[in-house]
Amino acid sequence: MRKFFEKIVEGGLLISGSVTSFTILLIVFFLFKEASGLFSSPVVEEGYVLAVNKSNDVSHLSPETIMDIFDAKITNWKEVNGKDEEILVFRFSDLTQYYSEEELGDEFQYVPEKISELVGKEPGIIAFFPQQYLAQNFQGTVLPEEKISLSDFFAGTKWYPTSAPAPIFGLIPLLLGTLLVSIGAIVLSLPFGVAVAIYLAEIANKRTREILKPVIELLAGIPSVVYGFFGLVVIVPLIQKGLNLPVGETAFAGSVVLAIMALPTIITVAEDAMRTTPRAMKEASLALGATQWQTIYKVIIPYSISGITSAIVLGIGRAIGETMAVLMVTGNAAVIPTSFFEPVRTIPATIAAELGEAPAGGAHYQALFLLGAVLFIITLLLSISVEYISSKRKM
């Protein structure tokens, strides 16, 4: 009977592991499937076209260039290797500035003809209008429909997903924001975390350990939104006033909050690893004349380095993947950071803030899934690297 139950338990564990593995594979497959769709999306907003006068020899415009033109940052075609001609920006909503309602028709039946006429007579025009109003005998030149490229995303320096006529999905500002906040959090939390772990494992008496250990473990269970609220009402004002900054929502504020959140994980895992050091090794070190601190540095830490490394990985994973707390205290500015004391936006915060508003299946939706894929790859590479380093140390 006992063997029968053991077989049932083994079978249950096998099924559970198989289902879990299969589910993870499905999630990864779906993530990358949705993400890859971004590169088949058009640069210009779907259902719209960009057109110029036939005399204009510009045939290619990048998403960032299109945005700069429509934001009046580029005002002459010679700035984009065209003729020395002032750029006239035309949006579909501007049509009534050129033609009366009577000229457009009661049911807008003359709109295609009027748009064609306008583009044909204005040499410096760039027109953005719905494709349904493209006349059969269009007098201008419709810019060729291009797809979002790998370089547009991975080398893009701007993130404007709702920009019209060409949304911009640039990874670099979000990636740099994520790395800046995460690295700052680890730099702040790692020394304190390891120090507290050493204290609990080797220095604190039993009563102190029994009091502090549950308190530290309890901190790991506090919801991240609570940490975010604490950071917003306490840490952010302190940083703003203490450093005399225009705003307190900065990468540094995010790093401080994440460091506090990562501390319980680092302390708990590192302390457990240190306590696995054989008592005989510690006693042998002390018997040879080593001090307690020399024993900690020369014996305990090297022996438990694998566990400490795991604590670091878990801490970094917590920092990189954190969403709500970071969303509340970093300012959410999707720009390339030039200082640790500027607002930034991280990848998880971007996904959380924008996924609910992105139309399912659209370019914005797919770009957010691609951000998730990038985050997955970063975490995977980090785990593999640390495991490799840990195994080398054991050898």
Describe this structure in words.
By secondary structure, this protein is mainly alpha-helical. The protein folds into two domains: 48-149, D-Maltodextrin-Binding Protein, domain 2, CATH 3.40.190; 172-394, MetI-like (MetI-like fold, Orthogonal Bundle). It has helices at residues 2-36, 63-70, 101-104, 111-121, 150-154, 172-203, 206-219, 224-242, 251-274, 279-287, 292-303, 305-321, 324-329, 347-354, 363-394; strands at residues 48-52, 88-91, 125-130, 141-142, 159-160, 168-169. It starts with a helix and ends with a helix.
Please sum up the structure shown.
This protein folds into two domains: 48-149, D-Maltodextrin-Binding Protein, domain 2 (3-Layer(aba) Sandwich); 172-394, Orthogonal Bundle (MetI-like fold). The chain has 15 helices and six strands.
From the structure above, extract its key features.
395 residues; mainly alpha; D-Maltodextrin-Binding Protein, domain 2; MetI-like fold; 2 domains; 4-stranded mixed sheet; two-stranded antiparallel sheet; 60% helix
Question: How would the blueprint of this fold be written?
Answer:
Elements: H1 2-36, E1 48-52, H2 63-70, E2 88-91, H3 101-104, H4 111-121, E3 125-130, E4 141-142, H5 150-154, E5 159-160, E6 168-169, H6 172-203, H7 206-219, H8 224-242, H9 251-274, H10 279-287, H11 292-303, H12 305-321, H13 324-329, H14 347-354, H15 363-394
Parallel strand pairs: 2-3
Antiparallel strand pairs: 1-3, 1-4, 5-6
Helix pairs in contact: 1-15, 6-9, 6-12, 7-9, 8-9, 9-12, 10-11, 12-15, 14-15
